[in-house]
UniProtKB/TrEMBL annotation:
Record's protein name: Embryo defective 2752
TM annotation in the entry: 35-55
Claim: Transmembrane helix is one of the keywords in the record: yes
Keyword tags: Membrane, Transmembrane, Transmembrane helix
Amino acid sequence: MASRFWRWYADREFYKWEKTVLWDMIETYRRPRSFAPLISIYVAAFYTGVVGAAVTEQLYKEKYWEEHPGEAVPLMRPKFYWGPWRVMNGEVPPSK
């Protein structure tokens, strides 16, 4: 019985370093983090912007119709673009 115990103890001590080496090698190869939360946030932000733009344009049209009933609504100037605006009176000028 004692020899069996010492054999078990010796095997355990001898093979312990192999277990740690193997697990240390495997532990470095972890599964990469998922991009699903990031992609879902981007999709939600995109559609929030689309809905926001549609609501803003509809409010613009309703306000214009209240002030000018029966007229065609001109194009709405972009909110966050401060560059040159080439549309005059709701009509795109002819190309030269």
